[in-house]
Write a structure and sequence with these properties.
The complex is a heterodimer of chains A (404) and B (174). Chain A has 404 residues and is of the alpha/beta class. Chain A is built from 17 helices and nine strands. In chain A, the strands form two sheets. Chain A has a five-stranded mixed sheet with strand order 6-5-9-7-8. The longest helix of chain A is centred in the last third of the chain and has 18 residues. Chain B starts with a helix and ends with a helix. The chains are: A alpha/beta (404), B alpha+beta (174). The interface between A and B is large, with 60 and 47 residues.
Chain lengths: 404, 174
């Protein structure tokens, strides 16, 4: 199909790294800048800007951290990349480390992926033997090593400052920014935190050049994006597509015909109704870390909202009030709606609360946790209002014995 | 806890701390190692970690209580974590959950009397294209259906060997 591309598939191990090490640090960053790549984790911060901010700081100690805390509901592309694209990934981390002037790269792997650790460690050992890691990599005089550190089961640790807190042996509570990690990161040293997919893309960019990368995607969203597609579709899986693809085309790709909504970007993303399926994926419109959950015509959107809010109530770190107190209130509201017991006046109040959470929460978790609730209560009013209680108590509504 | 067990745990924690040069950023790997071996981080272990790293025990408690893979109460030898995220939910998580409860005779959040299994929900396991998914310790199972549940459990019951069967029977008669 025309919409599927495979630009991130073939990669000669060491090829991007070799090119990077033959250039100056500034040239590496310039190449990445020219490619126009933005962070693949979802926030979309330009990678070259991050690396440059980190590179210009004078410091003996610097770190590059690969964020492999893939916890966004519906995202599984990193699982695949960590298992099958390790050469490009380690090249990418090493290139980033070289560019910013770090001696150590850390892969922060989520506890749920512990079974992947032995494979990664074995691959790292192999690279040390073959001279792609360690002292004077490929005879360049550049020293660099990578270690794997484990998370311990906390969604919020995908947020870069929370991730750093966790690495430092603290509760994974996000810090205020500024100072940004590029200045004051891990143990106070300049630190660049990059997504797995971003680092792999950078290895490809170094190997094949920024023009090659820009051939794909749109002006503001260059390159391709890996989508993790699941839910009510015939062909779930990981797809590589150029940025700018419409949701309708995504649905075509995966066999999700008849969907009444698509959840773009996971629990923290947007619930897009069928009427808006012409919208396009990209930083111009629907930015996403790649989670696409197809919601079929039979699904109850209040179940969807309840599932996500349950998740946020559990995963909120509890530090800031809008997120800690707001999510349980929204969850309660969804349950009222399910039982047909929510007045429009109260719903309006809850929507106001959701917008407050978006504006006043400290980190991305709280700022985005109300998204699905707001989208569903805006776009699916006829479905959620005035329910008779049988429907609210139907097969989908109850989850017995849920751990709190 | 017996005095000798305390002594050996104290010794182990001292060795771990040594490995991480008594630095605070060694805390997570230390706690993970202790959790894996002892199925929990006990009060005593938290005090020892604190002492070795030069922080207050409450700081260690703050960390242990924050992460879902660390616990202050002992977990079963095998911790079953069923993914509760939307895609697995769509794929039939509820039926698997009910069957797990039926087979184990416990509810989510509980541990069997013989201390063999703990049953929990967890958030997205990254197996959304192959749901419903669950973890048993670090082993991942995908496309789980109720029929499969008892086979999976049986595999781990057998791993425990004959001793467990005795314990199980005792638990059953208790």
């Amino acid at each position: 199909m025309a919409n599927v591309v495979h630009i991130m598939e073939r990669y000669e191990p060491g090829s991007g790294l070799k090119k990077a090490l033959s250039q100056s640090r500034q040239d590496v960053i310039r190449t990445v800048r020219e490619s126009g790549i933005k962070g693949r984790g979802g926030a979309g911060f330009p990678t070259a800007v991050k690396w440059n901010l980190c590179a210009v700081v004078q410091s003996e100690k610097k770190f590059i951290v690969c964020n492999a805390d893939e916890g966004e509901p519906g995202t599984f592309k990193d699982r695949l990349l960590l298992a099958e694209r390790t050469d490009a990934l380690f090249d990418g981390i090493t290139i980033g480390g070289y560019a910013i002037g770090a001696k150590l790269g850390i892969i922060y792997l989520r506890a749920e992926y512990t079974y992947m650790r032995p494979g990664l460690e074995a691959k790292l050992a192999e690279r040390r033997t073959s001279g792609l890691l360690g002292t004077s990599i490929l005879g360049s005089g550049c020293n660099f090593d990578i270690e794997v550190r484990m998370g311990a089961g906390a969604y919020v640790c995908g947020e870069e400052t929370a991730l750093i807190q966790s690495l430092e042996g603290n509760r994974g509570e996000p810090r205020n920014r500024p100072p940004y990690p590029v200045n004051t990161g891990l143990v106070g040293a300049p630190t660049s935190v990059n997504n797995v997919e971003t680092l792999i893309a950078c290895a490809h960019i170094l190997a094949k050049g920024p023009e090659w990368f820009r051939k794909f995607g749109t002006e503001a969203s260059t390159g391709t994006k890996l989508l993790s597609i699941s839910g009510d579709c015939k062909k779930p899986g990981v797809y590589e597509v150029p940025w700018g693809i419409s949701l309708a085309d995504v649905i075509d790709l995966c066999g999700g015909e008849g969907a009444k909504a698509v959840q773009v970007g996971g629990a923290s993303g947007r619930t897009v109704p069928a009427a808006q399926f012409r919208r396009k994926l990209g930083f111009e419109d629907l930015a996403t870390g790649g989670s696409i959950i197809i919601i079929g015509p039979e699904r109850d959107l209040l179940d969807v909202a309840e599932n996500f809010l349950d998740f946020f109530v559990e995963e909120s770190c509890g530090q800031c009030t809008p997120c800690r107190e707001g999510n349980p209130k929204l969850l309660e509201g969804v349950q009222l709606l399910k039982h047909g017991k929510c007045s429009i006046g109260y719903l309006r109040e809850l929507q106001g609360l959701g917008r407050t959470m978006q504006a006043a929460s400290k980190c991305g978790l709280g700022q985005s946790s109300a998204n699905a609730f707001l989208d569903i209560t805006e776009h699916f009013r006829s479905e959620i209002l005035g329910r008779v209680s049988e429907r609210g108590q139907g097969s989908g509504a109850r989850e017995q014995g849920r751990a709190s | 806890m017996l005095a000798t067990e305390r002594e050996s745990l104290r010794h182990e924690i001292a060795e771990l701390a040594e490995k991480f040069e008594h630095k605070r950023d060694g805390m997570m790997p230390m706690l993970e190692t202790i959790q894996e071996k002892y199925r929990c981080v006990s009060d005593f272990a938290m005090q020892e970690v604190a002492r070795q790293l030069g922080v207050f025990p409450t700081e260690v408690y703050g960390v242990v209580s924050f992460y879902s893979f660390l616990s202050t109460e002992p977990k079963g030898k095998f911790v079953i974590r069923l993914c509760r995220t939307l895609s697995c939910d769509f794929a039939g998580k509820r039926e698997v959950a009910r069957q797990l409860e039926n087979e184990l005779g416990i509810r989510f959040g509980e541990t069997t009397k013989d201390r063999l299994f703990s049953l929990e929900y967890c958030n997205c396991l990254g197996m959304c294209d192959n749901g419903p998914a669950l973890l048993v310790n670090n082993d991942v199972y995908t496309r789980v259906h109720p029929e499969l549940v008892s086979d999976i459990l049986e595999k781990y019951r057998r791993m425990f060997g004959p001793a467990s069967q005795l314990e199980e029977m005792e638990a059953h008669h208790a």
